[in-house]
């Protein structure tokens, strides 16, 4: 498959690039800044996810687009602007399959209560979590089956690629997962399309 990965220099995006290449896919790594190193076989392309015309051009040339970019973490910038930006991005992707690297805050702790709504949810992460949740709401509202939204476990960090993890739908499958195993699940979804038009999540423990 021809796979375009936006946010390809990030913790998750870079692992998805590596995982997809290891399975023989043709990967275009897209980011605002050129990476110091790029896995052998990947093609780097400068990209701005807010440039709708450019996004549409990329989508038309690939089988799958991975959105591994997210709300801004730059001090002073408003993460909530991601909501409108993501809507425009998804519109530009059009009918091409879209795999979204989502957040964990929108997972449900109990019926109708998201993790981000709990009083114990860290305030520092709440604006970003709400922006990710709004992106998921946007996808659910538009319907269709050409997208999948993958939420990580509440804790995600560097670790090992084990390929051993549990999947769930709207509730956490556990507490922790590695970036590497998240990438395995993301590329599995690219290949298998097991969750069309739906959100799912994973955890290793």
Explain what this protein looks like in three dimensions:
Helices cover 31% and strands 24% of the residues. With 205 residues, it is α/β, with parallel strands linked by helices. The protein has one domain (2-203): NAD(P)-binding Rossmann-like Domain (Rossmann fold). Strands 3-2-1-4-5-8-12-10 form an 8-stranded mixed sheet. It has a two-stranded antiparallel sheet with strand order 6-7. A two-stranded parallel ribbon has the order 9-11. Helix 1 (11-22) crosses helix 5 (179-192). The chain starts with a strand and ends with a strand. The model has no long low-confidence stretch (mean pLDDT 96).
Q: Could you name the key traits of this structure?
A:
Rossmann fold, 12 strands, 5 helices, 205 residues
